Structure formats: C-alpha cells, structure tokens
Amino acid sequence: MKSLRAISFLLILLISQPGFAQNNENEENKNQSIEVEFADEAAFVIDGKKLTLGDAIRLVLTENRDTLSGAYDVAMSDSDYRKYGKKYSPFINLEGGTKYSEYPEEMGPMVGADERITDATLALSKMFSTGTTLSAGLTHQYTKITQRPVVIPGMGEITFGQAEYYRPVLFASVQQELLKNSFGYSERRQREMLKNYGKIQREALIYQLSGLVVQVVVDYWTVVISSSAVDNAKLKLRETKRVRNITAANVRLGLAERFDLNYYNTLVAAAEATFAATQQQYRDTVRKLLRTLNFDKDTEITGNAVVANKLPIIDESESLKIAFEKRADYQNALLSLKNAQMELEMYENEGLPSVTAEFNVSALGQKDEMNEAYSDTTAAKYPSWEARLKVTYPLDDSEQKTNERNARFKLEQAKLMLDKYKREVRDDVVSAIERIKTYYTMYEKARESRKQAEIYYRRLYQSMKRGRFTAATVKNALDAMVDSRQRELEALIQYNISILEFDVARNYLFDRYQIKVDNYIPKEK
Fold first, then answer.
1. CB 349 within 8 A of CB 181
2. Angle at Cα 92 formed by Cα 89 and Cα 98, nearest 5°?
C-alpha cells in the first residue's frame, strides 16, 4: 500500500512539473486576442490601429449608420422655422389676357360695334414681420373699339369716343394692423417660437447622438469582456482537465473513488460547453461592433484595450453648473417655458379688436400713343389715392378664449416640467459622480479578490504536489480564481463606462474631446 502511494505521489509530481504548467500558460497567452493595459485615458485597437476615445467618437460619427441617420434628423430640425419664412418672401405676380366683344346696334353709338382689350399686370408684394403688407406694380391696358358713326343733320357723320388708346396705371398699397397684432406683435413671437422649437429638436437629437456614441464604445468594451470570458473559459477547461487527469491516475492507483472521476468528467464536459458558448458570444459581439462601425467582416479586433484605472478628481458644483448649461432636456425645458409665455401673450393679444389701416395710391394715363400714355403715368398727371380704416371685433370669440385658457395651462405645465428637469439633471449628475466612486471601489475590491483567489489556488496547487487535496476543494478554488478574474475586468470596464456616463449626464462628451458636431451635420448643396 505504501508503494502505491509513493508511485501515485511521483505521478502527481511529474504531471504537475513547472514545465508543464508553463507550456499551458504559453498556450493561453498565444490564444488571447485582447489584452488590457492601463492609462489615464481609455483607448483601444482595431485592425492594428490605436484609437483614442476622441478618435472613436469621430469614427462613429462618420461610419455608424444610426448616427449618420440621426445627423440628417438634426439637419432637418429647423424645417418648420424655414417654412414659416416663406410668409415674408416677396411675391411677384404676372397676369395678362385678351378679350374681344361684339355689341348690337341697339346699345347705341357710344358703345361701338366691337371692342378688343389686351391687358397685363405686373405686381410685387411682401409681408414684413412688423405686420405690414406692401404691394406695388403696373397695369397696362390696350383697347381698340370699332365705332359706329352717327349722322347728325347739318353736321354729317360724327364718331364719339377714342377708338384706340393705351392706359398704363402705376399703383402702390400699404396695409398695417394697428391694435391686434400691432406692428407684428404676434408675428415676431410666432417666428421666435418656431425657431425655439427647431433648437429644441436639434439639441435633443444631438444629445441622443452622444448616447449612440457611448453605446458603440460600450460595444467595444463588451468585445473585450467577451474575449476575456473566452480566455477564462479556456483556462478553466485546461485546469479542469489537469485535475481530472490527476483524479484518473488516483483512481487507477486506488487513491480515489471512481465517482470522483465521474464528477470531474462532468466538470470537463460543462467546461467544454461553457468554452463553446463564450466563443460564440465573442463572435457575436465582434460582428455587432464591426456592423456598428461599418467595418469589413474580416477586420481584426486584436491588440490592447487601454482603460483608465485611476480615480479622477471631480468638482460636484462645477459639474452641476456645466450640466445646467449644456443638458439638452433642461435647456429645452427653458425654451419650452419661454415659448409657453410667448404663446400666452399671442392669444391675449388676439383678444383685442382688429384695426387695419390701408392706403392706396395710383397714377394713370390714357393716350392713343403708348409713349405719351406712359409719360402721363410716370409724371403722375392723373393721381388717385385712397385711405381706409377697418375695425373688426367679435362679440363672443370662444376660440380665442379657449386658446388663451389653454395657453395659461401650458405655461403652468412648462413650469412644472422645468422644475422636474432641474431636479432630474441634478440627480443624474450626483448619481453619476457617486457611480464613478462606487464602481472604482468595486474594481479595487474585485482586484483584491482576484489576487487572493490566485494566491489561494496557487497554494492549493502546491499542496496538490504533496498529495493533500480533495476534488471539491480544487474545483471551488478554480471556480473562485476564474470568476474573480472575470469580475475584476467587468468591474474595471464598468468603471470606465461610468466615466463616459458622467460626461453624458453633463452633455459634455463632445466638448471633452473637442469635437464640433456641426462638422458632421449634412449641409445643403
């Protein structure tokens, strides 16, 4: 019996020689696809090129299909404001025609036998934001009448009227609202409101873009985690097979029960299944990242993933100040409150009577020669002017009263939403700062846990050489070591994500990396 124990001990020593462990360690390093290194700022390697987070963000803005599509939404955010500008565009009107009429003799000699009229009008009109409407133009009319002569005893035939003449008319008109919408009171507010709506949409969309950018970076770190999971699954499979082989030798020597070998055969099968599953998960995460970045499917995701492992110094009051200045939801709430105030002012103004002043002036000429007719017109030889004042006031305008009531309610809603987002921004920033500290603490604890687990497994491994071990003890130590390695990396990645989320909470991501988003917004050709 003693000889059997001695042989078993010698076998254990041979299997557990340092050279054997070193070969497996080399194999592990050879197959590891992504390694982690530390720096003050995170970065990663794609297809052999090292990218800082700033580079990665620029890459996302130029390649990711979601961000590119979102950039077009940003470019179109001012559509309503631009469309409203049509209201103040100058309009040119050109109209012309011809007319021919024959008249019966019973209508008398003053009418004539027939009449031909050709006319054309050219007018230019424009509305201004002051509520003023201005129009001016020229009307030209050519008339030719075939007259019937009248026989008067003692005088012979006489033709009445001018048979052919030109009649040009120059005209101008100005119209102004004096009370309701006085000098564009409502027009200016309406235009400002539409401009603010455009800003609200734009800032909200850019804020969403920053979230998409962070998600792509998180996708890369997910690849790093998946790669580490593959390496750890490979390590667990290797170590499980090693202990299984030792157990099998002990069973043959009578130093272990056969059910111990059955147990480790089960563990090996489970480790092989886990290794296969982690490999598939890694392939899936790589495909997603390459698709997100619009890279070729054969692009290599290898090299070193650079992550930050130092706790930054954060000024909470300064961070809150930046957040209130830059957070899209809070700034948009301020604009919405401003719009609600202007909307109420507009509907209050609509309750006033409409008082419209209009002034029209014209000059005409009529000659059988065109030059003479236009000379009279341009010299204002025959001027005409007209001034009018129109007052309109509904005695019971239920629409205006309802609009004004709703505008008051919307103003109160806007105040409530501003208070909500003020609290939300403050909580988001404070929570983001706390998460940075919390995840850093978790990382430190995970790192210490990993060190202790490795020491525990290494010392147990040394005990294995002396023949003092049990299958359950080794299995638990191996699980603890592998799991602690994965938890440490996940905690480190989560800590780096929390730093990015802190920038998103302040809407400071693009500013930190000096990225001008306008450069990535499509422009009109």
1. yes
2. 160
SS3 for 19?
A: helix
The answer to whether 276 and 46 have CB atoms below 8 angstroms apart is no
What's the CA gap between 279 and 33, in Å, rounded?
12
Q: Among 404, 290, 423, 298, which Cα is nearest to 344's?
A: 404
Exposed / middle / buried, residue 295 (Cβ in 10 Å: 0-12, 13-18, 19+)? middle
Report the chain's C-alpha Rg in angstroms. 43
Contact 439, 431 (CB under 8 A): no
Per-residue pLDDT tens over the stretch 234-265: 988 998 898 888 778 878 877 777 887 898 89
Contacts 24+ apart (CB under 8 A), 189-196: 189/342, 189/343, 189/345, 189/346, 190/84, 190/346, 191/81, 191/84, 191/129, 192/342, 193/339, 193/342, 193/343, 194/80, 194/81, 194/84, 195/78, 195/81, 196/335, 196/336, 196/338, 196/339
Instruction: Please check whether residue 384 is in contact with residue 296, taking contact to mean a CB–CB distance below 8 angstroms.
Output: no
Q: Which residue has the higher pLDDT, 458 or 404?
A: 404
Report how far Cα 376 is from the mean position of its chain's Cα atoms.
63
pLDDT above 70 (res 3): no
pLDDT tens-digit map of 357-376:
999 999 999 988 899 999 99
CB atoms within 10 A of CB 13: 13
Question: How many angstroms separate the CA atoms of 408 and 410, rounded?
Answer: 5
- Supply the pTM of this predicted model: 0.74
- Rounded to an integer, what distance in angstroms lies between the CA atom of residue 203 and that of residue 191? 19
Contact 172, 362 (CB under 8 A): yes
DSSP for 312-334?
PP--HHHHHHHHHHH-HHHHHHH
